[in-house]
Write a structure and sequence with these properties.
The structure is a homodimer. By secondary structure, chain A is an alpha/beta fold. Helices cover about 30% and strands about 25% of the residues of chain A. In chain A, the strands form four sheets. The first copy, chain A, has a five-stranded mixed barrel. In chain A, strand 2, helix 2 and strand 3 form a beta-alpha-beta unit. Chains A and B meet through strand 13, strand 15, strand 16, strand 17 and helix 12 of A and strand 13, strand 15, strand 16, strand 17 and helix 12 of B. Strand 15 of chain A pairs parallel with strand 17 of chain B, so a sheet runs across the interface.
């Protein structure tokens, strides 16, 4: 692995509401430390990559509105390594922007694309895996993704089916992907799990810049066409204008849907590092191991709980006594301007808070 | 009614936890406006009496710790009309203190004793009733209490059975009391209600100072004995010392238990004014008439409620969006330092919050 040719692109533009009301449009999950680890998600992601690559080779793509948050949390990031999206257009245009930026800097660039909001416990194993993957794509012209052996029929993840069935699956040996399925329903997820030939797609991609460029131009010409002239525009005084025009005209499309599900070059790397998408209140509850005798996980100055089970209490300011009685399987989140009490189930939560899209709740979004 | 002989003693020493966490040891219910009427309970009580009596004739008895709260809320109260209890000894010693104070000022004093934490909607009818009662005790040597015709088998009230059964009961005609029963259980309360010969005891008493003095000396000599020498001590430079000694040595006993249940001079005045003891979260909920379509009564900056019924939400600072889903018959109270979520039922609430007596919760009491 020639580290000079290896880059990382951290995707940090998302504005999810899944940790509302702790996460807000103005401070989404990647800039928070909901799991109370001592660092925000994006800082973890950046530090994790700093152990593998030179700082100069780590880029962050985010929305213009999050520029200040990124600079506050990653103050050492050099300005030319921060790619700002003028409009939210999902991951395919962001990846195109990053791909052309790297190609201009180094035509032999390989790079890993990763979300900014995951928890990975075993960072050494993670580093080893990523290094192995860089070596692999140096030798092999593939679009590599990373797969985690599923342990439950989770409906919040994407699944990748490997070619050759369960016998083809070996840790640390990339295998060709047969199909991708995003967030299946429960029944399908159970079938996937039972078959033994599916992996959770960790949402991390690794490839040569040239390879992903070619595949995007093949499957998403309507996106890459907008970047025509990149060789002259990127890294110059007209970059802003060029990118604003390209994103303005661009469709909203994900890399998974636009490229990975269509290409015949997708391979998956079955990994062993402990990857966790703590992406919902329910998954945060599952992640929090400190519980009382009734399975309540609570973060507050002081807690008094009675007749309550499997309930997650989050009072981020930690100034309060939270006294609860008779709550089974709830989330209670208490911020300065919102108090949320809701069943913990992801779907119920999501349905419920979809209502904050109504104009009357604007100031609480 | 000769107003110069008529006085009022407002009892404001209680330190209940029934509106915890809005009420605290340092600011109990009488100094709050939990029902959001625009005035605190004690201010309402004082203003209501100001319509009947000269300001000079209205006294307040409270604990020393509440002196500043009283002076803040009733700034016009003259210092000699504020009787401070050095120790909490329940209502019998407070009444003794007030009785001897008034006897010293005016041996012909009649006075009404009333709690400081009730809601009375029809103040004109209330004034008429009190005036009628002053006239009655001027003519009749009785210990008069006030009775409200019960409308439900409430177990939070005291009941008075009238002599002569249901036929003896006529509005505005005092009738002799046969028995008093404090807070009966549900079955007994149902029997009381069905019999038609019981009234809710409104906790307001009216009498000649001389009459209550005589009855206290008869039934509670262990209390009145401690006030021996009152003629010389009260209203002088030694009053403080005298009262501190008397209260220090005194037993804790209520007027209802120590005198009213034992005397044969108790009469009750069946009244029609709209008296409400808003004394628990459940009764506050019943009092609040503004509800959403599912019977939720909510006081917050903004509310989003789904799958929730008959729930009371109180966010006194009114700075928050309160978003609740799946709560039936709960109370949610959100103060600066406590968040309470609990079934609304009085008994469940009381049992639950009895735990804040534990040392670890001291700062939240």
């Amino acid at each position: 692995m020639n580290k000079n040719n290896c880059y990382c692109v951290i995707m940090a533009g998302g504005a999810g509401t899944r940790f509302w009301p702790v996460s807000r449009v103005n401070r989404p999950k990647q800039f928070l430390d909901v799991a109370e680890t001592g660092k925000t998600f994006i800082r973890h992601t950046y530090d994790r990559m700093l152990k593998i690559l030179p700082q100069e080779n780590i880029l962050i793509v985010t929305a213009e509105r999050y520029r200040d948050l990124v600079m506050e949390q990653i103050p050492e990031l050099e300005r030319h390594n921060l790619l700002l999206e003028p409009y939210a257009r999902n991951t395919a245009p962001s990846t195109a922007y990053a791909t052309y930026t790297l190609l201009k800097r180094n035509p032999d660039a390989h790079f890993v694309v990763m979300p900014s909001d995951y928890i990975i416990e075993n960072e050494e194993l993670f580093a080893k895996t990523i290094e192995g993957a860089f070596d692999y794509v140096e030798q092999n012209d593939v679009l590599l993704t990373f797969g985690v052996v599923p342990t439950r029929p989770d409906t919040n993840y994407g699944y990748a089916q490997v070619l050759g069935g369960r016998d083809a699956l070996k840790y640390n040996e990339p295998v060709k992907v047969k199909t991708f399925t995003e967030k299946p329903d429960k029944d399908l997820a159970k079938i996937f799990l039972a078959s033994g030939e599916f992996l959770w797609n960790a949402g991390i991609f690794l490839w040569k810049a040239r390879t992903i460029c070619r595949e995007m131009e093949k499957h998403l010409p309507q996106v890459t066409g907008l970047f025509r002239g990149w060789e002259h525009a990127l890294g110059t005084g007209v970059e802003n204008e060029f990118i604003t025009k390209a994103f303005s005209d661009c469709m909203n499309i994900s890399l998974a849907y636009g490229v990975m599900e269509k290409t015949d070059m997708a391979w998956i790397y079955p990994v062993q590092f402990d990857w966790q998408d703590v992406g919902t209140w329910e998954s945060l509850y599952n992640y929090m191991t400190e519980r009382d005798g009734n399975g309540n996980a609570m973060s507050a100055d002081k807690v008094l709980a009675e007749d309550s089970r499997s309930t997650l209490v989050i009072s981020p300011e930690k100034k309060k006594l939270v006294a609860i009685k008779g709550l089974d399987d709830y989330i209670v989140v208490d911020t300065d301007d919102v108090l949320l009490i809701c069943p913990k189930d992801d779907k119920k939560f999501k349905d419920f808070i979809s209502q904050i899209a109504m104009p009357e709740f604007e100031k609480y979004r």
